Amino acid sequence: MADGMTAQGKLLVVDDLHKSFGSLEVIKGVSFDMDFKERLVLMGPSGSGKSTLVRCINWIEPPSAGRVTFDGKLVESGKYDIRRLREDIGMVFQQFNVFPHLTALQNVALGPVVVKKTARKEAEAEAMELLAKVGLSHRADHKPAQMSGGEQQRVAIARALAMHPKLMLFDEPTSSIDVELIHEVLDVMVRLADEGMTMIVVTHEMGFAKEVADRVIFMDQGLIIESGSPCEVFEHPQQERTLSFLSKVLLA
Amino acid sequence: MFKWSIIFENLPFLLAGAWTTLSLTVVSMIFATVAGLLVGLLNMFGGRVVGAVTRFYIEAVRGTPALLLVLLVYYALPIIGVNLPQFPAAAVSLAVCYAAYIAEVFRAAVESIPKGQSEAAFSLGMNRAQALRHVILPQTFRRVLPPLANEFAALIKDTSLVAFISMEDLLFKAKIIGARTYNIMSPLIGAALIYLIMTTPVMQWSRSLEKKVE
Questions:
Q1: Beta-carbon separation of A60 and B119 below 8 A
Q2: With contacts defined as CB-CB under 8 Å, which chain A residues touch B214?
Q3: Is A141 exposed, middle or buried (0-12, 13-18, 19+ CB in 10 A)?
Q4: Are B2 and B62 in contact (CB under 8 A)?
Q5: A179: left (phi over 0), alpha (psi -120 to 50) or beta
Q6: Which of A83, A97, A115 is closest, CB to CB, to B120?
Q7: What is the mean pLDDT of each run of 10 residues along chain B (214 residues)?
Q8: What is the ipTM of this complex?
Q9: Which of A96, A165, A238, B57 could form a disulfide with A90 if both were Cys (CB 3.0 to 4.6 A apart)?
Q10: Within an 8 Å CB–CB cutoff, is residue B128 touching chain A?
């Protein structure tokens, strides 16, 4: 997987990635790659390293070892600086992390204005379009404190989209949202997938995975233990651990 | 014995002192806040050497009496050729002193912002300065106001230290009246009342802000 041939035409190549926190190794050598427009769902029990893996891809957590190649450029080599990488990769967090001092509109416009030096008027016009896309036009002038979790998360998605990312990372985007509001967020994500956005989604939402994922990667104890189409992984899991996890998720 | 009449007869004199106290407080506070923000940021993000230097400054100031700093600036700096008149000397020493405390106020406020906020800023491609300027500092603003107001009230009281370099602030004027009238109790109580009139609203304001932040 490390040679240039297989890396060609791939949007993302992760090669033997390791991540340790102190003496604790949470990712123990993970490799996978992704095509443009591919939708990947990452699953696994808590502590399996799936969130950390996603956070390593845009260097929010710098990997301890291994290589990440994004859009044909090796990230760690210095050819591709981390800030540029992050401009090209959108991220949606479990805790939303919307900016509480700004309105929904300002949240979405901030990235382009600060990072891309887009004129404020232009950025806000586009932010308005993005808010419409996530169904929040009527909330443009509201602050996060006045919004539900589902609305805040949709603002966060619009905020990430405003940078025109080539890849979107979703780190358990619905885990902190009230059950009855989860579909608001999932609907937006499904629509994004339909439009051809390349995305990696850490989630336990089986329905979403079945509907959207081209591939499901199952992680446990810092390693990928199973990978395949949703049908393969969900209906014919090869690993005992995948099976036991799936039965717990289905029961929940 | 205590006599209201002594306070009233000398009120303009006392108020002149109060004016000195207040203007010294305001000037020192402005410099202390700007310097404190700078020192706090340098301490957090300036790297190892700058971090250590600013940490030394903060601990040195916090571990020594403010009066020492006032005396040092006014009486010792002239020895190495830095001659400051009373007011600037007093303002500089109080600002240097309070900047250390205010640096800690800003540090605590920045550290109280959840990590997810800077992660979100970084994930958009912001560098550290941009994240601070547009995401972190605006959120600290509301959190620093109550402790800053507290520091302001403390500074009003600490300006009385400048009596030691013979600046005619509120306390010094009170002592002059005491010497002139052979009644030290009355002007001191008068000064106390004026200090309270200045500090109480500030502390009340701080308390109501604190409630709002919660």
A1: yes
A2: none
A3: exposed
A4: no
A5: alpha
A6: A97
A7: 88 94 97 96 93 96 95 93 92 96 95 95 95 95 91 95 92 93 92 95 90 74
A8: 0.92
A9: A165
A10: no
